[in-house]
Write a structure and sequence with these properties.
5-stranded parallel sheet; 16 strands; about 475 residues; alpha/beta; about 15% strand; about 30% helix
């Protein structure tokens, strides 16, 4: 790096006008067509001098709106100022005060619609790159610190069970452990992490990152029991009455996939995105030496417009598809996927069929997918979500040749636990009802994340985990 680019800590004493003159920095990333051939992470992270320069764009607002946009309430100006001063480990400590998974959220949190959209710089140019800076700090910490320094906490003698080792369960467990409670997480899969390990591909969130965060969780004293399906292996009543848990937090997610209900969905070669990504990510089918069965289609269609659809279609490309296509019934600007993920998919050669809805999946005489019949759509009046409703254009039917179809149109509440717990009140969609404290209809049993909200983001689930931990602590102290 040229000497002129080296930024010294004393350079942080900048006036607002000088900070405003610094343009938003770019995240280095791998070439689109090259990275589409493997599962190595796309974004390369910020070099130190670029991170410091980006941090110095922050105006250090006295009333920081960005904090309001963060579901876990990170002191964003505080940690960014520490980066600007070159004190990266202090920045990491400040982030971890409120966020147990910074290396994860720095990669997959939709900052552009939460903290960054609140940035005052949005009024004139681009917001401060909060997510990239969070990732920089957490990666630096992993490289320069051997594990987390843990404070000795006085034990309360109370036992709490967290059901599900996904973002909500992990966050709740970590917060409760810091409060001195004995916490056990019960996870249905053979590996903790939830959607972080079964739903998000290596090229977006390497499993190594999740493993390190789980290691930090265990260092807090949290016990994790895998291969335990609450509702089958053990019931809530047994956890409370026989295992002696004083409170329970339900965070088992909403892993029941939705389908389109069109003819041909039962053909061979039709996957839910949930199964497809679980086979690839959690069960390792993406590795060349894996014996996990997965169909490697040559012409792949993925139905949907969210982040899961982006993950699935980009995975199919890396598994060898010649043509990978997103089929979405609305317009590109209405896609709920992150802008960055859409941009990365375009760079990797993904085809986008917008304003298109499947009407039938066609099969050959062996029962395998061979094509998909679709119809063009146009945007009509707004629906209940405020988006213009897609309306079929009569006579616009056409055929897309494909040998693999992946359905990524959403998920529903997993009924395994709730069917075994009739005292839990559910809403009409099968999700658990919880009050403002996240307590369910069973005293002492709390719930959060997707099993309450429906499909949402990692950071929103983490926010629920934090709120639940605070209120479980109050409940155990007889304050709720």
């Amino acid at each position: 790096m040229p000497e002129s680019e080296i930024i010294q800590p004393q350079d942080n004493n900048l006036k607002p006008k000088e900070r405003m003159a610094i343009p938003r920095q770019e995240m280095p990333q791998r070439d689109g067509m090259e990275r589409a051939k493997d599962f190595v992470e796309v974004n390369l992270g910020l070099p130190e001098h670029i991170a410091i320069k980006e941090a110095r764009r922050c105006l250090q607002c006295k009333k920081a709106k960005c904090i309001e946009g963060c579901p876990v309430g990170i002191d964003i100006p505080g940690f960014i100022n520490l980066i600007a001063e070159g004190d990266f480990l202090a920045a990491a400590d400040l982030i971890r005060r409120d966020n147990n998974l910074p290396a994860v959220t720095g990669r997959v949190c939709p900052q552009e619609t939460q903290c960054e959209i609140k940035c005052v710089r949005c009024k004139t140019d681009a917001p401060v790159a909060v997510g990239w800076l969070e990732r920089f700090v957490s990666d630096y910490e992993m490289q320069h610190r051997n594990g987390q320094s843990q404070k000795t906490v006085e034990k309360t003698g109370k036992k709490v069970a967290c059901i599900g080792a996904g973002p909500a369960g992990i966050t709740c467990a970590g917060e409760l452990a810091k409060m001195g409670h004995d916490v056990t997480i019960f996870e249905a899969f053979h590996k903790p992490g939830g959607v972080l390990v079964y739903g998000i591909p290596e090229f977006r969130l390497p499993n190594e990152i999740v493993d390190l965060e789980i290691k930090n969780l265990k260092a807090l004293g949290v016990t994790i029991e895998t291969n335990v399906i609450v509702g089958r292996t053990v019931t809530l009543d047994q956890l409370r009455n026989e295992e002696g848990f004083d409170s329970i937090f339900i965070a088992n997610g909403a892993g029941l996939p939705s389908f389109m209900r069109v003819p041909g969905e039962n053909l061979k070669g039709v996957y839910s995105a949930n199964e497809y990504l679980t086979r690839s990510n959690l069960m390792g089918a993406y590795r060349p030496d894996s014996d996990t069965p997965i169909i490697r289609g040559n012409k792949v269609c993925v139905i949907g417009g969210g982040n899961t659809a982006m993950d699935a279609v980009r995975t199919s490309k890396r598994l060898g598809a010649e043509v990978s296509t997103i089929v979405y019934r609305r317009a590109l600007e209405q896609m709920p996927a992150r802008v960055e993920e859409i941009h990365h998919a375009e760079e990797e050669g993904i085809i986008f069929e917008m304003l298109t809805a499947p009407t039938e999946i066609l099969g050959d005489d062996q029962g395998w997918v061979k094509a998909m019949k679709c119809i063009r759509m146009e945007l009509g009046e707004p629906d209940e979500s405020g988006r213009r409703r897609p309306v079929p254009i009569q006579g616009s039917e056409f055929i897309i040749d494909c040998d693999l179809v992946i359905v990524a149109i959403g998920i529903n509440a997993n009924p395994l636990l709730t069917q075994a717990t009739p005292d839990l009140n559910l809403n009409k969609w099968g999700y658990i009802e919880a009050d403002e404290n996240l307590m369910t209809s069973i005293p002492g049993v709390f719930a959060g994340g997707d099993i309450v909200r429906g499909a949402a983001t990692v950071i929103l689930a983490m926010g629920d985990g934090k709120l639940a931990a605070r209120n479980i602590d109050k409940y155990l102290k007889n304050k709720i």
